[in-house]
Amino acid sequence: MSEFSEIDTENLIDRKIFRKKHRDFMNVNGTLLMEIMTINRENKISFGHIIERNAEQWPDKAAILFEDRQLTYKQYNEIVNQYAHYFLSLGLKKGDIVDLVMQNRPEVVIVIGALGKIGAVVSMINSDLREKSLIHCLTITLGKALIIGEECLEAFRRVQTELGLTDQIIFFSPDKGEMPNPEGFIDLSSKVKEFPISNPPTTKEIKTLDHFLFIFTSGTTGLPKATHFPHQRLVVGGMYMGTACAQYSADDILYVTTPLFHSNTLIAGFGATFMNGASMVLARKFSASRFWDDVRKYKATAFNYVGELCRYLLNQPPKPDDANNTIKTILGNGLRPEIWMEFKTRFGIERVTEFYGATEGGGMFINILNFDKTCGWNNNKCTIVKYDIEKDEPVRNKSGFMIKVGLGEAGLLLKPHKYDFNFIGYKDKAATEAKIIHNALKEGDMWMNTGDLVRNQGCGHIMFVDRLGDTFRWKGHNVSTTEVEQIFNSYRQVSMSSVYGVPIPGTDGRAGMAALTTGTKIEDFDFEGLATQLLDNLAPYAVPIFLRFKSEMSTTSTHKLKKSKLKKEGYEIEEIDDPLYVMLPGENTYTKLTSEIYAKIQDGQYKF
């Protein structure tokens, strides 16, 4: 048996301090939390209501700042209304699906706001997807219209004929104006100009729990899944996370650099900004070298993050003025314990509102009390059970039930399952059911399998340990091994593949690695052809960094590929006789992994 046995006693939560901090938190936020519960119960306020409220309360205040553009709350509401009236004129209505493929820019949140006001559902397509992954996501949420950003047109054109489009409306959203409107597309920005700026009558018809967005998540197995995302996630989530936990107010300026198709950005960035009448500085993409200059330029007081973002900032050469910035609070997930204190100290961060959650489910943990090195607290009666890494399954006692871990121990996190709230689930009902564990701790119980190993810190707090199953996390994204294996297995020289994540020193998450079998000699293998197929069909973060060529694969009695030994061995060149290859930063093909290259990787000389 190989479940986690080490106990961490250094990062436990002190019960006396917890009780005092929690009491103080409730004294300050008790009324606010009751208001949040009322919003859920009454089911009346949609995100469209919030947009209109902000336009009345803070008409001249900056809502969005992007490059050389600025929209006040009044201007934002007016342009959202023009889009909404135009969409209504085309017959779009509540429940209709519209696919959105666009990088970070104001048009993303304008479209979201407009379609939200009429009750349509926006499918937030990952703008990094290519070929098969893009086809898959567009196909499972294909609706009445598609909105394609100029910057994503080429990727869309490559899959357009395979989508089987019939009577769908295809909109083109100009970006930098470097190309004319494509034939067969409607120029969205020019069409909306003739429509009124008044609030549409439909806003009052949309409720808190109405379906708002599709957000894609890999879950723990298979291809990306479309997750239901109601207005409640932005309204209640933005208020709870932003106002109560991160303590934002209308005086704050949030710097948002993570992609808007992520639930993290939507709630902790966009939602937290708008629910508080704050200002959002939106970046097209994250830039470690430009980050602090932008913070100082806009006088940002907060930013949302994923762990890799903090690591990238920490890896920048230190400067004497690192702590001389306006940031007070950060809100996000994935800040690793080993860099937590260094990051806070170097950049003068007062508050880290770390959280842990899932796009498809509730039961969030969040660091409401500003402890260090924790994902935070949860009161939804989640449980952590012992897990056997080698067998890749929970440990069960003689009666067949799972075993809870002790204080300081790590195991699989389970969340109580309730279809009405905790686990919202996926568009695919079968995928939803696959996440549910029955009879875990007693006969008849039901739990959501998070697919994550966490450590029990006591007082309802957890520390994230690792990702399980057929998914690993890299560059802030969950990568589906099944999806990557399908691309490998379709390559003419690959017989079988097994994809998994491996750690690289100085990075967060796991880098992709693939073990391959092939009928071709290594000297005859077309590495450039393989790399081209991977790069054409996968998002950049999903392309494996390492390759391992094996003569045969080990499988279980049910023919499932054994990955635990492969994960453990990683790319340890001195312990592996199989040929190893690596795709180095900035390169588009694979190079043989030598002892010299291996040493440089371990020493952090390559910036993956």
Record keyword descriptors for this entry:
single chain, 608 residues, alpha/beta, Rossmann fold, Luciferase, domain 3, eight-stranded mixed beta sheet, seven-stranded mixed beta sheet
Low-confidence stretches: 419-423
Q: Which percent range fits the helix content?
A: 25-40%
Average pLDDT, to the nearest integer?
91
Please compute the radius of gyration using only Cα atoms. Answer: 24 Å
User: What is the level-2 CATH architecture name of the domain at 73-206?
Assistant: 3-Layer(aba) Sandwich
Described by its quaternary structure, the protein is: single chain
Strand percentage = 15-25%
**What is the 3D shape?**
globular
Q: Kindly report how far apart the N and C termini lie.
A: 34 Å
Number of helices: 17
Lateral arrangement of strands in the main beta sheet: 2-1-11-10-12-13-14-15
* Number of distinct beta strands: 30
CATH top level of the domain at 73-206 is Alpha Beta
Walkthrough of the structure:
It is a single chain. The protein is an alpha/beta fold. Among the domains are: 73-206, Rossmann fold, CATH 3.40.50.980; 377-467, Luciferase, Domain 3 (Luciferase, domain 3, Roll); 471-602, GMP Synthetase, Chain A, domain 3, CATH 3.30.300.30. Helix content is 30%, strand content 24%. Strand 13 (329-333), helix 12 (337-347) and strand 14 (351-358) form a beta-alpha-beta unit. Helix 1 packs antiparallel against helix 8 and helix 2 (47-57) packs across helix 4 (106-118). It is globular, with a radius of gyration of 24 Å. The two termini are 34 Å apart. Residues 419-423 have low confidence and may be disordered.
